[in-house]
Amino acid sequence: MKSLLRRLQYLFARRQRESELDEEIRDHLARKAADLGDTGAARRQFGNVTLVQEESRAQWSFPLLEQLAQDVRYAVRDMAAHRMFTAVAVLSLALGIGANTAIYSFMDAVMLRALPVSQPEQLVILNWRAKDNPRVVASHWGEIYDHDAGGVISPNFPYPAYELLRNNQVFSSLFGHMNAGSLNVVAEGQAEIARGQYVTGDLFTGLGVPPALGRLIGRTDDQRGAPPVAVLTYDYWKSRFGANPAVVGQTVRIDSTAFTVIGVAAPNFYGVNSSVKPQLFLPIVSIEQIGWQNSKQGLLANRTFYWIELMARLRPGVTLETAQAHLAGPFHNFVYNTAVTELERSNIPALSLQEGGSGVDAMRREYAKPLWVLMAMVGLILLIACANLANLLLARAAGRRREMAVRLSLGAGRFRVIRQLLTESLLLAIAGAVAGLGVAALAIRAILALLANGDEAFPAVVGLDWRVLTFTLLMAIAASLLFGLVPAIQSTRLDLTPALKETRAGAPRRRNWFSLSQALVVSQIAIALLLVVAASLFVRSLSNLYAVQLGFNAERLLTFSVNAAKAGYEGPARTRFFADLESRLAAVPGVRATTSSDMPIVGGWMSSTVIRLPGAPPPREGQPRTGSPYAQVGPTFFETMEIPILQGRALDERDTEGARKVAVVNQVFAQKFFPGQNPVGQHFSFGGAKPVEIEIVGVARNARYNSLKREIPTVMYLPWKQTSQPLPQMFFDLRAAGDPLALASAVREVVRQANPLVPVAGLTTQTRRMDQTIRQERTFAQLSTWFGALALLMASIGLYGTLAYGVARRTSEIGIRMALGARQGRIVWMVLRDVLVLAGVGLAIGLAAAYQAAALLESFLFGLKPHDPFAILVSAAVLLGCALLAGFLPARRAARVDPLVALRHD
Amino acid sequence: MGNVKTEIPPGTLHMLILKSLVRLGDMHGYGIAQHIQQTSDEVLQVEEGSLYPALQRMLIKGWVAAEWKQSENNRRARFYQLTPEGRKQLARELRNYQQVSGAIAKVIEAV
User: Fold this and answer.
1) How far is A803 from A793, CA to CA, in rounded Å?
2) Which of A3, A4, A19 to probe the B interface (max B CBs under 10 A)?
3) Which residues from chain B sit within 8 angstroms of residue A36, using beta carbons?
4) Looking at beta carbons, which residues of chain A come within 8 Å of B89?
5) Would you say A320 and A352 are in contact if contact means Cβ atoms under 8 Å apart?
6) Which of A89, A531, A634, A732 is most buried, most CB within 10 Å of its CB?
7) What is the pLDDT of residues A747-785, one digit of tens each?
8) How many A-B residue pairs are in contact by the CB < 8 A criterion?
9) Residue contact A6–B59, C-beta within 8 A
């Protein structure tokens, strides 16, 4: 090892070493001459001075390294000599590697990256698992997922369970967090919405996250009765407070409670749940002060309300299994003691730990599968690019047969020549990878914009970190082997004598390299077909989504929400505030109509309640009860949304708080619950605990509710003025005379005049909001269209290159044919026949593969089956068209061959 | 015997150089070659063509160190010196050599 270092030193002081050696040898000669008394004899005895020097120098050298330098020099010279080839190669590799790098960086951000905390590998996430939704969970905030291995899994726990599990020997700390959602943060007189997260007092110390400024939330802040404090994320501190250090100690009002800012968290720390990306952290005890309406009291003491998410750091030397075995018993006992009925005792959730180094995996659930699909697509694109390059290299190798034969016959080792050819490929690949990083940076930005689509930023931090760069480098090396190895082996496998005898123009017609290149073209066509089929499936899904009958008019609608509860309005004052605001909004110039509702009409929201229909038997314990989704809307809802009333009347100004309780139902509701009857005038009871008697006054035409993708459910529209509890927030829809976004600043001003402490949230157009709900489909359709186009382009270039080269090689043959009287049409057909054969074989293979692969995409499709014949036929036709186009140019050139020129060619 | 010159057996040149340096302290290339020649009663002839590559190799390996010094006749020369690493290497090579030559001797005597 040391000798390697010394050699390196020699490498850098080469000049000096050489002159030293020179001097030493001269000294030697002088001594020898003095001893012998004869300079000539001394020289003769010494022998070849240069050779001695050379052999001495050889001791310092790195033969491998120097050969590599030689190879690189040679390769660079060669790349410069073939500029067109180099440009095509680098460009296609840049696109292929760039696309892979971009998608991989999303995977890295969403699925692989560890939290920016100390020793993330010690972190574990606590979950519980059960056979199915356990009855003992009386209330639940959060998620219950189907577990891959059967049953269900959920990350939410009751707060008392957290307090119990904290006493243990296996964790060095156990901490909890809960998404606080949108908070109304009033600082310096400005009200703005910010995303918050509740954390326990030991979260920051447990994770080992340092403050960037001030201090972080600690155990003392997380006691009931402690003064309310808040910690900002680094980004929020910069964007909202201009990175002003004086913010520490300042008071901000959060949902109308005063909090003192005590510090700023370290940069890059966004909590443990990558799908939320909060902007500020609050102690978990403050959830009782500012949490949801019905949670205000007793949440922290409630033993059957499951909500807090838990993470822990294992003590050194403790394994996940040990920890789970240790705590499973206490948790079981805790839950068992909260069970009341036999039914509840029959399905007790069991504690289940999982590795937590990358944080909470909600985002992984959402994006893992789409990302794998995209990764597969870009992987295929890189394969096409590699096949292209392999083909180009094969063609070039055929042109270099003489050169290779000369080198091999002069004694160059075959391995040495292969190594030199691979150096060339690697160099190309690295150049491609460097350019690919640029492509990736652009692609990442484009994809982020696509995903965000005007909404707040994509929660995960995506970028080119060292892991992505490593991936890119590995990708380049793999690619260079993939496209370089076979041509290198092929081109050094030569029968030397005939190859040396070749003239420059014509090689003997040994076609085995050509069949390899045909195989490459066929595989390119097959792969391209796969990608084009995927693209057309996704595009058709998206167009199906856009073609969905909305049932209301989404044009020129501006939509936003305001939360009056968070600004401190209570009870009837809140209702008055909303009603007053709506009439102010209606007066804004350019607003044609307004309406309000308790949820966005198509935005992933849903409220549902139990109903009891006339004549139905009273519900029995344990029986599934009849229920229906509903929306609470303002008096001008149907008019503004342009939903036609088919029977009876719409809701209107008559339906006030004191009036008879009424509802308008949709057609699905009418047909399901009142088949063959007129529902208008019918009564039903609404709600489970304190049912209200409601009269149906009208039937509205079906309109989308909750989602574009789901079937329209039964929907009841109720006047929000008749609700039992005043709504905390209201969604407004404004029909504009012109561009709805032009109203944005006027709307903000009107709300500010109504009350400066009430912020406007989610201001956007209705169409954009609906786009938000199908952003996965949009992103897929767009990306796969790009990918499909890229694949088509590359496959066409590959086909074109192969055919053009084939035509060039057959120039003299074509000349003879024409001299013998072949028509131009026959020559064109001769070339196109090759195209058809190649494309036909490629399409056949591609169709078989697409048939298999498309089934994997089923869950991403809307309104069509994966084996949609239209999509597949169109794709095949597009591909065939491209192939013919790519083939037509060489064919035309072949037909224009001048027989005289061609025959003189040799 | 005076005129009979024998090539140095392959693989032993390093050992001979190292051994000479033990004897001579520090010495330039010419001196080392002379020393080997004289001590072997002119039997072993050190070719310059192998001496200098060998010295360079030993420098790289760290068995010897070199230094430019004024020599007896006021001429600047590169002097080689044994390093601790070189001493260890010499011991290794001697052990090896003795084993081999002992074994050869046994074979020869057995005839």
Assistant:
1) 15
2) A3
3) none
4) none
5) no
6) A531
7) 999 999 998 888 888 888 998 888 878 877 888 888 889
8) 66
9) yes
Of residues A6, A45, A55, nearest to B53 (C-beta) = A55
Task: Name the H helices within A263-361.
Answer: 287-290, 320-338, 342-345
Let me know: does A625 contact A589? Beta carbons within 8 Å: no
Contact A60 B60 (CB under 8 A): yes
Strand bridging mode A229-232 / A257-265: parallel
Contact flag A47-B57 (C-beta cutoff 8 Å): no
Tell me if A31 and B60 make a contact (CB, 8 A cut-off). no
Contacting residues of A for B32, CB less than 8 Å apart = none
- Measured at the CA of A220, the angle between CA A219 and CA A224, to 5 degrees, comes to 105
Judged by average pLDDT, the poorest of A172-176, A409-413, A809-813, A871-875 is A409-413
Task: Single out the residue of A879, A837, A836, A842 nearest to residue A534, CA to CA.
Answer: A879
Q: Check CB contact of B76 with chain A, cutoff 8 Å.
A: yes
Touching A: B residues 12-71, CB under 8 Å? 28-30, 34, 47-49, 52-53, 55-57, 59-62, 68
Does any CB of chain B come closer than 8 Å to the CB of residue A2? yes
In angstroms, the CA A764 to CA A603 distance is 12
3-state secondary structure of A614: coil
- Confirm if A99 and A91 have CB atoms less than 8 A apart: no
CA atoms within 13 A on the CB side of B62: 11
Dihedral pair phi/psi, residue A159, rounded to 5°: -60, -40
The reply to whether A51 touches chain B by the CB within 8 Å rule is yes
Q: What is the pLDDT of residue A546?
A: 87
Rounded alpha-carbon distances, angstroms, from residue A767 to A592, A596, A604, A631: 17, 17, 14, 19
Chain A: nearest CA to B57, how far in angstroms? 5
* A58 contacts in chain B (CB < 8 Å): 53
Q: Distance between CA A646 and CA A551 in Å, rounded?
A: 12
A344-348 mean pLDDT: 88
Lowest mean pLDDT among A32-46, A125-139, A325-339, A449-463: A449-463
| Separation in Å, CA of A410 to nearest CA in chain B | 27
Distance CA A461, CA A8 (A): 41
* pTM confidence score: 0.72
Q: Where are the alpha helices (DSSP H) in A362-413?
A: 362-399, 401-409
Nearest-Cα distance to chain B for A314, in Å, is 48
How far is the CA of A631 from the CAs of A664, A730, A811, A830, in angstroms?
10, 12, 75, 68
Place of tokens 């010419």: B30
By the CB < 8 Å criterion, does A56 face chain B?
A: yes
From chain A, pick out residues whose CB is under 8 angstroms from the CB of B68.
20
Provide the shortest C-alpha distance from residue B11 to chain A (in Å): 16
Query: What tokens appear for A159 in the block?
Result: 């707060």
CA-wise closest residue to A699 among A679, A673, A682: A679
CA-nearest residue to B48 within chain A is A46
Query: Which tokens sit at A295?
Result: 């949670």
Q: What percentage of chain A carries pLDDT values higher than 70?
A: 94
Instruction: Tell me how far apart the alpha carbons of residues A664 and A636 are, in angstroms, rounded to a whole number.
Output: 13
Q: Which residue stretches of chain B have pLDDT < 50?
A: 1-3
DSSP bridge partners of A573: none
- Grouping H, G, I as helix, E, B as strand and the rest as coil, residue A226 is coil
Residue A746 identity = A
Residues of A in contact with B30 (CB under 8 A): 27-28, 31-32
- CA–CA distance, B86 with B92 (Å, rounded to integer): 10
- The CATH class of B13-109 is mainly alpha
Residue closest to A479 by CA, chosen among A781, A101, A121, A156: A101
For residue A287, give the nearest of A141, A137, A124, A139 by alpha carbon: A141
